[in-house]
């Protein structure tokens, strides 16, 4: 069976319509990414200048033989630095635990405790299956209202935009990485993930698993000397 190649318009009018259609398609494809850049432009910080917040939210990024992958370890290193600097009081680790032999939150907690964060200041979210799920659950399940988010630079804008849409006053700390194959893969993936992020902010679907309220963050903050999650300041 022969596959027929598409025929290009032969008339100038047809060619102009084709060019306009291609340009319009490219613009539409780039709009979600442009939205992420503009909507989060004033929300990105470093470990050194991150604003104080009750909670740091660190997103899962894969395990290698049961331990955090290098990218996830770098996120956790930055989170531990935020805690040691007194910029956050509690850490919410959110990741995938959809099967018994794969547990991102427990591995993240173990890593953080080995790097100086007390176990009583770490709360685990076992159903952070994607960024939107993690943000919605942080708000609705754990009662987080203000947070510093920690992820790689290519992902942090999407994390901030989605957590803001979920109702969390968010600032993002983007972890720098060498531009290796993983970095390029992550950056390319974000081009397509921006489309889903825009749809999530518009339609605001429920996460894969919601479940009952969890007082872990509130209890950890109380133990740290804070009355509870801080609400968004007005003005």
CATH architecture: 3-Layer(aba) Sandwich
Contiguous runs where pLDDT drops below 50 for at least 5 residues: 24-29, 227-235
For this structure, the CATH topology is Rossmann fold
Write down the overall mean pLDDT: 86
Helical content stands at: 40-55%
Order of helices and strands: HEEEEHEHEHEHEHH
Structural class: alpha/beta
What is the domain total for the residues?
1
Largest sheet features = 6 strands, parallel
Overall form: elongated
The H-level CATH homologous superfamily, spelled out, is HUPs
* End-to-end C-alpha gap: 66 Å
Q: What's the gyration radius in Å?
A: 21 Å
Q: Number of DSSP helices? A: 7
Look at the structure and give the CATH class. Answer: Alpha Beta
Protein name: Vancomycin permeability regulator SanA
Organism: Streptomyces murinus
Pfam families: DUF218
Region (Disordered): 214-235
SSE map:
Blueprint: H1 12-39, E1 44-45, E2 53-59, E3 63-64, E4 67-68, H2 70-84, E5 88-94, H3 104-114, E6 122-125, H4 131-140, E7 146-152, H5 153-165, E8 169-175, H6 181-203, H7 216-223
Parallel strand pairs: 1-8, 2-5, 2-7, 5-6, 7-8
Antiparallel strand pairs: 3-4
Helix pairs in contact: 1-6, 4-5, 5-6
Region (Disordered): 214-235
Organism: Streptomyces murinus
Protein name: Vancomycin permeability regulator SanA
Keywords:
Rossmann fold, Cell_Envelope_Assoc, 235 residues, 8 strands, 6-stranded parallel sheet, 7 helices, two-stranded antiparallel ribbon, single chain, disordered C terminus, alpha/beta
Describe the protein in words.
The chain is 46% helix and 16% strand. The protein has 7 helices and 8 strands. A 6-stranded parallel beta sheet has the order 1-8-7-2-5-6. It has 235 residues and is an alpha/beta fold. The chain has a single domain, classed as Rossmann fold, CATH 3.40.50.620. The chain has helices spanning 12-39, 70-84, 104-114, 131-140, 153-165, 181-203, 216-223; strands at 44-45, 53-59, 63-64, 67-68, 88-94, 122-125, 146-152, 169-175. Residues 55-170 form the DUF218 domain.
């Amino acid at each position: 069976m022969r596959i027929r190649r598409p025929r290009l318009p032969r008339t100038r009018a047809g060619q102009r319509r084709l060019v306009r259609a291609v340009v319009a398609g490219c613009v539409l494809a780039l709009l979600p990414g442009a939205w992420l850049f503009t909507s989060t432009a004033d929300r990105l910080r470093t470990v050194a200048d991150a604003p104080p917040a009750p909670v740091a939210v660190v997103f899962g990024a894969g395990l290698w033989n049961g331990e955090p992958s290098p990218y996830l370890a770098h996120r956790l290193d930055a989170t531990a630095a935020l805690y040691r600097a007194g910029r956050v009081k509690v850490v919410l680790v959110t990741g995938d635990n959809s099967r018994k032999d794969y547990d991102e939150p427990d591995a993240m907690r173990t890593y953080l405790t080995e790097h100086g964060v007390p176990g009583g200041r770490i709360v685990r979210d076992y159903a952070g299956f994607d960024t939107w799920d993690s943000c919605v659950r942080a708000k609705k399940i754990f009662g987080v209202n203000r947070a510093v988010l920690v992820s790689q630079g290519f992902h942090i804008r999407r994390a901030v935009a989605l957590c803001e849409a979920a109702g969390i006053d968010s600032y993002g700390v983007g972890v720098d990485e060498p531009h290796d194959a993983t970095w390029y893969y992550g950056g390319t993936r974000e081009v397509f993930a921006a489309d889903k992020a825009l749809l999530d902010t518009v339609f605001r679907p429920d996460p894969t698993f919601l479940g009952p309220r969890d007082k872990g963050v509130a209890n950890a903050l109380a133990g740290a000397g804070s009355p509870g999650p801080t609400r968004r300041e007005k003005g």
